[in-house]
Amino acid sequence: MSEAASEQPLLQVRGVQTYYGKICALRGVDVDVPRGKIVTLIGANGAGKSTLMMTICGSPKPREGRVIYNGEDITGLPTHEIMSRDIAQSPEGRRIFPRMTVLENLQMGAMASKQDTFDGDLRRIFDLFPRLKERQAQRGGTLSGGEQQMLAIGRALMSRPKLLLLDEPSLGLAPLIVKQIFNVIQELNRTDGLTVFLVEQNAFHALRLAHHAYVMVNGAITMQGTGKELLAREEVRAAYLEGGRH
Amino acid sequence: MADPQASASSNHGAGEQVELENLRSGLSGEPPAISPRRGGAKSQLSASLVDAVVAGALAAALGFFFIGLRSDIAPGGLALTQRWGALVIAVAIVFVGRLLLNLFVYKRRRSAPPKARAPKATTSRGETYARFSKAIAPVLLLVALAFPFLMIWGAPQQSRQYIDLSILILTYVMLGWGLNIVVGLAGLLDLGYVAFYAVGAYSFALLAKYLGLGFWTCLPLAGILAACWGMILGFPVLRLRGDYLAIVTLAFGEIIRVILLNWSNFTGGPNGISGVPKPTLFGYEFKSGAGGVADLLGIHYSPIQRFIFLYYIILVLALLTNFVTLRLRRLPIGRAWEALREDEIACRSLGINTTNTKLTAFATGAMFGGFAGSFFATRQGFISPESFTFLESAIILAIVVLGGLGSQIGVVIASVVMIGGIELLRNLTFLKAIFGPDFDPTQYRMLIFGLAMVVIMVWKPRGLVSSRSPTAIYKRKTRIGADMVAQGEGH
What we know:
The complex is a heterodimer.
Chain A lengths: L2 H5 L3 E10 L2 E11 L4 E6 L5 H8 L7 E6 L2 E2 L5 H5 L3 E4 L11 H8 L8 H11 L1 H5 L10 H13 L5 E5 L7 H18 L2 E6 L2 H7 L2 E6 L2 E6 L1 H6 L1 H8 L5
Parallel strand pairs in A: 3-8, 3-9, 6-7, 7-8
Antiparallel strand pairs in A: 1-2, 1-4, 4-5, 9-10
Chain B lengths: L3 H7 L3 H14 L13 H28 E6 L2 E6 L1 H28 L7 H36 L4 H27 L8 H18 L3 H20 L7 H21 L1 H4 L5 E2 L18 H5 L6 H27 L1 H11 L1 H6 L4 H27 L1 E2 L6 H14 L4 H19 L3 H6 L9 H15 L32
Antiparallel strand pairs in B: 1-2, 3-4
Helix pairs in contact in B: 3-4, 5-6, 6-12, 6-15, 6-16, 6-17, 7-8, 7-9, 7-15, 8-15, 12-13, 12-15, 13-15, 16-17
């Protein structure tokens, strides 16, 4: 890899506009996710966070702008091709396969990867989430919400991604589980150098974790900075944090 | 602004979203607990009486025209007969029946405290089942292999009839297994499966008629052609799921039939194609005289030999279907089918090409349908579009659904019950003694069908065999009990 390529961010979103029919959901969004960093995107309900996530994954496709991964323009590619490029996503609402066992769910995560490293990867996931090891023969749908989220992240990690896209991993989870999951994300980033793009409503946790953060309002980025900077800013506190710290 | 997730989902089609919502609601929340009804026996009795009176009144209102009045064709128009006696009897039956149900069946269920289900218990039950099915499978296979000879030995008079019936059942088993790939594994509701059966049958019949090809040459060709038609159907329906897909596949099934019906020059139209060649054993025919198989083996010729041969052909074809399905389930493509049934969006986010996955499911299912079709053609010797009506699709789908989506043994049980059951009805001559000589039990088969379906869906909503064995085992083998499968999820 050339020097220039390694310096440029792993994921670049440039002037992306996404529409649902006539409704404009993203109005020219620019986001950079540098290598080995955790970047978070916070915003209220309906700000367009998940739309950005889905746009990166190629469904829906942006009307304007480009998505560049690792120096390659992936804007027009079908979802499954994007997802087979060292990108993994843990989608919003977890979307595990409810009737398949935990182990089968994890197997599904390894479908796209070409290397045969299944056993090692599986051991690593079980080390990260010992609960999944206990429950490996259980049906995905019978897991608790927290375990399902662990499974969704574990499944995403099975493809050995360089970039992990996480869409609201804290959705509907108890604070203790949220903390546990965020710890794992941090650990993955520190030890493996995994690049993480995190979309969150739980601004406090997300900002504390992030190297860099964006705030999205009505389909546009209104603020950005390091996590600590944003955490300290009055307007962020007022809009996303007050009363919600836990 | 709308919730982005909701809009994003609606981008993939409304059907998908509805399904997702079903899935979510199916997974979340507690099962509705039935609170035990308190109060003495007296209030129980009066409540039951009131309920029975209401039921009786409803029966009276409904039966007023249906039972109470009867119109007969009479000279100069219709004559109206009044049958109030029959109506009173019907209402009385409803009243008493409802009262008894209330007092003895419903009451108990209401007063019984909701049982807490321990997941461990279901697992161990699942394990028992797994062990049982593992032990029973070779036995069943041996019985299937020995069946024709058992019949000849045990019931020489009716052996031909029974072997013929078992051939029919096995055809439906094979069709059920083929459709199971599409509906049970990939979760694509296909109401027009009979189209592929028809394509297979007509491929063989037409190739034999115009090119003079034999069964064994045409069998793979019929499978390939049916698979192609599966793909052709697959392409336009790629974006559809659930109800929408069902409607389109239903239309497809009818289109094929109507084309076969109207393209008289080529397909023979409603007259069909007759003289479809019989299968040969390595080029030797089953016939009397020189050059036949019996002559070759030096045994006396009997027409039953051909039936036995057909039986083994369909047995091998069905077992092939089963074997391929079971193997595919353990391969990435089979797992992708199952994942597709569970959650299409998650599949895509894992880098699975859902287009290819759906097309392979359609094509594989269609291929086995095609094999079964060409077998059907060779067995009958005559085919016409009449054999490929929607009712056939419905029966095959019913076999798959009643047997338990995705369950192989369930399909076998359902085929035996449904196809064998209909034939059994024909033999229930003693019913004529009860209901009079005009009584024809087969006239009631659709009624019994419907009743059986309602009963099974109430009693076992996910089919007879609703447990699913995992395809991957890390350490210990367990099965997922039916009790742990939430209703309303999947199809």
